[in-house]
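The passage that follows is intended for readers who have already worked through the single-chain material. We present the inputs for a multi-component assembly, then the predicted structure in tokenized form, and finally a short commentary. You are encouraged to pause after the input and sketch how you expect the pieces to fit together before reading on.
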Amino acid sequence: MYAILDTKTNKCNGEETPEWLMNFTAGSHGVSVPDLKAVAYKDISAVISDIEGKSIVTDNTNALCYADVIDELFQRFTLLPVRFGSVMESTGAVKKLLERNYDEIKQNLCIVENKYEFGLKVYCDTEYSNAELKRALRAKEEPESGEKPGQNISADVNANSVFKDYLMEKLKVYKSEELLTMYIDNIIEEITRHLVPLNPVHTQYIKFKKIVSGIKKSSAIIDGVFLLDKEQYLKKKSVLIHTVEDLKSRFTISAPCGLDFVLTGPWPPYNFVNITLK
Amino acid sequence: MGEDKILFNSGILDLLPEEIEKLKNNPESRVNVTPDNADSGLAKLVLTLIEVIRKLVEKQAMRRVNGGTLTDEEIERLGETLMKLEMKMEELKKHFNLTDDDLNINLGPLGDLM
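Having made your guess, compare it with the prediction:
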């Protein structure tokens, strides 16, 4: 199963290969078999390949083919992409799945209707920022009062304890990670501030995942995704790209260590489908 | 990813083919279990999981230390426990001939596991 579409406007009458899909499949290839079919329930349809009796290899070729079908469908329809490798026993089982989850599917389709998903990854290049963070940590550790990390731990008890020293070292690492998290939070805040004007009412359509595993060369620190209205994107593609360019140059000034930005899309709404199938 | 999907790249993606090649050819980024090395292959997998859990416990402990709610005695005990846990892990790694890097599985674009 590739995707679930809202067929309300796509004239699907429950037949296995409706006209809209027949037109679409000309020139496209499904996984294992070339033809695509639609399984309909009310006004939603699942697009599938009927691979009865065939086994599917989960290799690169099939995964790319699967993504291509979703991508082609997505150029024309609002859809919920289904995870690669989602196979059901029969078309009847697919229909039952649509029936059981109809309300949730409709709700999700409503959220992503006429939206494109974009990915924004931020990479932090380097040892330089490590040094920057250490400097910031030292500044934080040594304010005017001369406080040290773990200053709340009484110094007169077990002053020479190896266990306590060990713990203090661990605490330093913990604090530097905390600082990194704060640093990433600041970047996320700045990115959100820049993106919001592109889609003012949909801040809930911006999601960020922080990756805090210590900065290493060229590691991703932020994995962001956001939805934009299709029409707005088509009209303002250059504005979006300019926004990210602007972010890049801002951070080049404030963090010369060099943050790298990668903006990708438009994608089907892979990260905005939230259904626990019944 | 098709070129047309990349709307903006400030340079980092130029390194991607090289990184992918490294991952493909890096046997250390996989858990390699064969009949001949079932013991160490399984040990690598199990120790990786234990290490992740140990790091989580450690982080939680640091949160409490940093919060300042622990007594000196509790701090002492916590330090001792964490130290012994780490030493035990070192022992196990040595026993199975594994290094820190072996347990830190590379998850590609997601970065390292730990």
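Commentary: The beta strands of chain B are 6-9. Chain B is about 60% helix and 5% strand. How closely did your sketch match?
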